[in-house]
Amino acid sequence: MFRIGNGYDVHRLVEGRKLILGGVDIPHPLGLDGHSDADV
Prior knowledge:
Layout: E1 13-15, E2 19-21, E3 24-26, E4 30-32
Antiparallel strand pairs: 1-4, 2-3
């Protein structure tokens, strides 16, 4: 049996944080606000 679902996660862009998407650092003046690294 397979269970498949869709979801989403939302974080604000803020100063003073790194922007990390899928474990990759993206050079950008703003980063994601959230717990830990807020990686999506």
